[in-house]
Amino acid sequence: ELGILGGVILLILIVKALYFTFFRMLKYSHQNSIYELFFYLQVFLLINSMFSGSLNDSRLFLIVIAISLIPEPLVHKNIVK
User: What is the C-alpha separation between 81 and 61, in angstroms, rounded?
Assistant: First the structure.
């Protein structure tokens, strides 16, 4: 009834998304990377949700987390001939 299990699962999801996005940001830093945008947007939306008190209804935050957890790289190399 306290929602501890749901809170722990949500916390694991947030930490995992920030971890993966941060290291992908470092890995693709030499290219035009969208991972920098995702990482900083996740941090901003997390802090915004913590101050507003609506972490469970932050749809944009959950959408950014879902996009950042895609295993395939979102950065394509430009092939110059």
Answer: 39
- Split at pLDDT 50, 70, 90, the class of 17 is very high
pLDDT tens digits for 23-33?
A: 888 887 777 67
Residue 5 to residue 59: CA distance in whole angstroms: 20
| Structural tokens at position 73 | 């790289």
Q: Helical H runs in the chain?
A: 4-27, 35-52, 59-68
Q: Rounded to two decimals, what is the model's pTM? A: 0.76
Structural domain spans, the chain? 4-68
- Measured in whole angstroms, the distance separating CA 32 from the mean position of its chain's CA atoms is 18
Burial class of residue 18 (count of CB atoms within 10 Å of its CB; 0-12, 13-18, 19+) = middle
